[in-house]
């Protein structure tokens, strides 16, 4: 039930073709399901449409599954949207994920996204891409359990796997460990690894696997205890980096098997 054409105030993707509808351009929005699309894509609009469910705000913190969609890949919309924005306009930025964004803006946008639940506002209005990177890192850091569930502990399965000296045996052990993670953690980890591999291959970013491992080790791996001492933090850091570096050494096809796409990262429409 499309309404008369309207003007777009904030750039948003077309719900049919996925291309961005730019500021001031004409668009059509369905009165029932709120689907936004180009006028030319109107004939391809599914009929009958289904009203979108009301979105509830996400919790301020929780395990990853609390934020995941009901169908695979179980990657939270917030993660997909941040990654998509970074890959769209951030792969020429030096120090991606290492250079901090303004903390006030990071927290402001994180609160805004969490309040929105699954129906997120577009991130195109965030001028500094480092703020988007900061939102993603802060979201992952704020989970009740780290994405790899505390595998900085030497006796945890990922920690043990990363310590195997033989490369082939280490790779096999890590694949097994990843496959046993909770589904939402596993799918989101796969999605992020594919993204970080793309970042590592960008000559402009100057963020190789080692640099990315240093940045994301504490965020993705966490600590063996909930309240680590300064000494424990210092001892955990090299192991955290090692685990992420080993995960990034696994072939992209392994990670693609979890997100179920030929592309390195699926972009939702």
Automatic annotation (TrEMBL):
Regions crossing the membrane: none
One GO cellular component term: midbody
Gene field: Racgap1_1
Database matches in PROSITE patterns: RHOGAP, ZF_DAG_PE_2
GO biological process, one term: Rho protein signal transduction
GO molecular function: GTPase activator activity; metal ion binding
UniProt entry keywords in alphabetical sequence: Metal-binding, Zinc
Residues of the Phorbol-ester/DAG-type domain: 1-49
CDD domains to which the protein is assigned, alphabetical: C1_MgcRacGAP
Record domain Rho-GAP: where: 62-255
Protein name: RGAP1 protein
Record-linked InterPro entries: C1-like_sf, PKC_DAG/PE, Rho_GTPase_activation_prot, RhoGAP_dom
Superkingdom, taxonomy of origin: Eukaryota
Naturally occurring in which organism (per UniProt): Podargus strigoides (Tawny frogmouth)
């Amino acid at each position: 039930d499309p309404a008369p054409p309207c003007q777009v105030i904030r750039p948003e993707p077309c719900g049919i073709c996925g291309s961005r509808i730019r500021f001031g351009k004409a668009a059509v929005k369905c009165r029932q399901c709120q689907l936004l699309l180009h006028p030319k894509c109107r004939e391809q609009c599914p009929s009958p449409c289904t009203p979108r469910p009301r979105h509830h705000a996400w919790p301020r913190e929780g395990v990853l599954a609390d934020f995941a969609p009901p169908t695979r890949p179980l990657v939270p919309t917030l993660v997909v949207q941040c990654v998509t924005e970074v890959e769209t306009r951030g792969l020429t930025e030096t120090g991606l994920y290492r250079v901090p964004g303004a903390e006030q803006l990071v927290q402001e946008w994180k609160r805004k996204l969490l309040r929105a639940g699954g129906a997120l506002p577009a991130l195109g209005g965030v001028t500094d891409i480092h703020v988007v990177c900061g939102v993603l890192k802060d979201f992952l850091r704020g989970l009740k359990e780290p994405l790899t569930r505390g595998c900085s502990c030497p006796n945890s399965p990922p920690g043990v796997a990363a310590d195997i000296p033989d490369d082939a045996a280490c790779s096999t052990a890590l694949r097994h460990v990843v496959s046993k993670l909770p589904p939402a953690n596993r799918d989101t980890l796969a999605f992020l690894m594919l993204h970080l591999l793309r970042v590592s291959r960008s000559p402009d970013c100057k963020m190789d696997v080692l640099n990315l491992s240093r940045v994301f080790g504490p965020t993705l791996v966490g600590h063996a205890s909930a309240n680590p001492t300064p000494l424990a933090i210092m001892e955990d850091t090299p192991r955290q980096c090692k685990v992420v570096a080993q995960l990034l050494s696994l072939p992209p096809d392994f990670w693609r098997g979890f997100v179920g796409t030929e592309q390195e990262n699926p972009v939702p429409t």
